[in-house]
Amino acid sequence: MIEIPLAIILGIIIGFFTGLIPGIHVNTICAILLSLVVSSSSISPELIIAFIASLAITHTFFDVLPGLFLGIPGDNTFALLPGHEMVKKGYGSLAIKLSAVGSISGLGIGLIIFYLLSKENAMILDSSIKPYLFYILFSVSVILIFSEKNRINALLVFMASGLLGILVSATPIIYPREAPINSMLPALTGLFALSGLIWSLFTLENSGDKNDHKDKEINYSEIPGPSIRGGLAGFIVGVLPGLGGANAATFLLLIENWLGKKTNRNRENRSYLITTSSLNTTEAMISIITLYLISKPRSGASIAIGSVLNNTIEENHVQIIITAMIVSGIVSAALIWKIGPIIAKRIHLYDYGALNWSLIVFLSILIGLLSGLGGLTVLCCAFSIGILPFVLDVRKGQLMGFFLLPVLIYYSGEGRVIYDTLLLTQRHSAILSFPSSNYIFISIFISIIFGFLSYKYFLKNKISIKKHQYFASKLIYTIPVIGIIFLLYHLL
Question: 372: Cβ–Cβ under 8 A, 6 or more apart, which residues?
Fold first, then answer.
């Protein structure tokens, strides 16, 4: 009775920091946690699932802050642009509160959907959709590509990330003995986190305190419509395989733009911020609950929970998950409502460039220690593709081809023929050998130490913005070269 509330509190604390620190995602924490659980049998499964559920929901409340006030580059159709516009006009505090309202609304909508949709009906719905999944996902992919201004570039990014997804699942360069957190961790880190961190350094600006802190009350009559749209979109994304929040956000942006023609730009911005926040939280919830409803994981958090429970989730486990989500949602909403504006006023005081470098060092060393040279190879190759949306001026959501293309091939029914034609076979072992929990803790500790030292170094030497940009530009060119060298080493 005491341990589970403590696990929920710990999930809230960790989720708070993963939301605030760019480059650190829930999937990263879950992957590391899964390794610790496999290597140690002393941790109760109930504590793990309470922690993960709390972490996943809390993260969705706070991950909007770096994008709003630090300018972390993200998907151009996500909440960043409308949120940035509000911040520049001096309504940063209002943006935070609208995001909090959207997230708590999304949690409520997710709960309503869960209680209205029984397990039997969910299984019927899943089996009814399954024969048409290929056509649904193919149509979504085509619409996402054709909604871009640079369609050829969008197709290139989508196919490149999709090919990476295929190759990563069949890669022979990360051996079981070297892979406590298989090839997904370096692939996703390079594709999304590392590319975003380095590009944000390359485009770093001395923006100062952009928030003038104007007071403006929330018009609560504007909340229901955007919240419901975001919640329903989050449910769809949480159920369908291969789709992500960035994909759904693209469609929602088109909808909000169309609805915005009947209103004004400011209301459209507010509406979209609520919609995407609701989408994020509902998706995080539903993607975990699908493990119970249709016995299929739809996120890194649900995969971790499924692994801990051996893919057998009982009603008492669901009660723990739902309780953890409700408690963490309420606490997170109260926290961000109270301290969000305070963080907004102080966040510009931190050295953003030094923070980015420390995260780059932390992630690189951690992956090197946990996944070996093969992991660093995947990291560099994934970065080479993850940087393309910024260079080619397309939405970062096109990188979801990493998940979508393999899923499309699977549901096409011609997967075996396609893989045989490409001369690809599944190389990795079904059972990975995990190192001891002591080794994992030591790896994390070493990575944190080096990350902290790098932060202190850049802070002490007061590196100018131009130097940050110069070093970042060199990395944009050198990391792909290093990846090619590593890859040739493995191939030869």
Answer: 174, 175, 178, 179
Q: Which amino acid is located at 487 in the chain?
A: L
pLDDT mean across residues, the chain: 80
Does pLDDT of 159 surpass 90? yes
Calpha distance 153→159 (Å, rounded): 10
CA atoms of 164 and 170, how far apart (whole Å): 10
pLDDT digits (tens, 9 = 90+) for 476-489: 999 999 999 988 88
Helices (H), 148-299: 151-169, 184-188, 195-202, 224-239, 245-260, 265-293
3 state SS of 17: helix
Q: Which long-range contacts (CB under 8 A, 24 or more apart) does 220-223 make?
A: 222/267, 222/270, 222/271, 222/274, 223/101, 223/102, 223/105, 223/274
Length of the chain (residues): 492
477-482 long-range contacts, Cβ below 8 Å, gap at least 24? 479/198, 479/380, 479/383, 479/384, 480/380, 480/381, 480/383, 480/384, 482/380
Instruction: Kindly state the tokens that stand for 278.
Output: 């609701």
Tokens 């949306």 belong to which residue?
389
| pLDDT tens by residue, 410-456 | 888 777 777 777 666 555 444 445 556 677 778 888 998 999 999 89
Residues 263 and 216: beta-carbon distance below 8 Å: no
Name 327's Cβ contacts closer than 8 Å, sequence gap at least 6: 5, 8, 54
Given a contact cutoff of 8 angstroms between Cβ atoms, the answer to whether 31 and 183 are in contact is no
Helix (H, G, I), strand (E, B) or coil at 187: helix
Which token pair is 373?
């040279």
- Residue ranges covered by each domain of the chain: 3-206+226-491
**Torsion sign, CA atoms 420, 422, 425, 426:** negative
Rounded distance between C-alpha atoms, residue 281 and residue 302, angstroms: 14
Q: Are residues 36 and 43 in contact, defined by beta-carbon separation less than 8 angstroms?
A: yes
Closest CA to 36 of 308, 297, 368: 308
pLDDT tier for residue 206 given thresholds of 50, 70 and 90:
low
Structure-block tokens of residue 164? 């990476």
- For residue 180, the model assigns a pLDDT of 39
- Evaluate whether 381 touches 165 at the Cβ level (below 8 Å): no
What is the DSSP annotation of 98-112?
A: HHHHHHHHHHHHHHH
Q: What digits encode the pLDDT tens for the residues 364-415?
A: 998 888 788 888 999 999 999 999 988 998 888 788 888 888 888 888 877 7
